[in-house]
Amino acid sequence: MTAVDRRPPRPGVEWEFDTVTYPRDFPRNVVRKLLVERAEQGGWVLDRVRIGHDGKRRVILRRKIIRAVRTA
């Protein structure tokens, strides 16, 4: 149901992407609630939504990767 990958869009910035698929029998308001919960808990932002011919919703979420820098 979930796949996470990392890819840098430009030098110095890294994004983490998460793909979630919802079946066609999930109502729109249920999908919205699930995505809001995921955004509030994990800091995800909506990147793309695709609805397939079969009615499945493929949602791509992203969040910025923050690297901790060691101080001497």
Describe, in short, the structure shown.
The chain has 72 residues and is an alpha+beta fold. It has one helix spanning 28-42, and strands at residues 2-10, 13-22, 45-51, 57-64.
Helix and strand arrangement:
Blueprint: E1 2-10, E2 13-22, H1 28-42, E3 45-51, E4 57-64
Antiparallel strand pairs: 1-2, 2-4, 3-4
Task: Report what the structure shows.
- The chain is α+β, with helices and mostly antiparallel strands and 72 residues long.
- Helices cover 21% and strands 47% of the residues.
- The chain has a 4-stranded antiparallel beta sheet, with helices on one face.
- The chain has one domain (2-64).
- It has one helix spanning 28-42, and strands at 2-10, 13-22, 45-51, 57-64.
- The chain is elongated.
